[in-house]
Amino acid sequence: MIFAFFFILGSIWGSFSNVCIFRLPQDKGVVLDRSFCPKCKSVIRWFDNIPIVSFLFLKRKCRNCEYKIDFQYFIVELLSAITFCVIYYVYGLSVTTLLLIILSIFFIIIFFIDLKHFIIPNELSFPLMFIGFVKSFYPNLNLDIFPNLINSLVGGIVGYVIIWIIIFLFEKIRKKEGMGLGDAKLLSAIGFWFGWVSVPIIIFFSSFIGLLYVLPSLINKTKNLSTSIPFGPYLIIGTVVYITFGNQIKLLLFNN
Ligand SMILES: [Zn+2]
Question: pTM of the full predicted structure?
Answer without folding.
Answer: 0.90
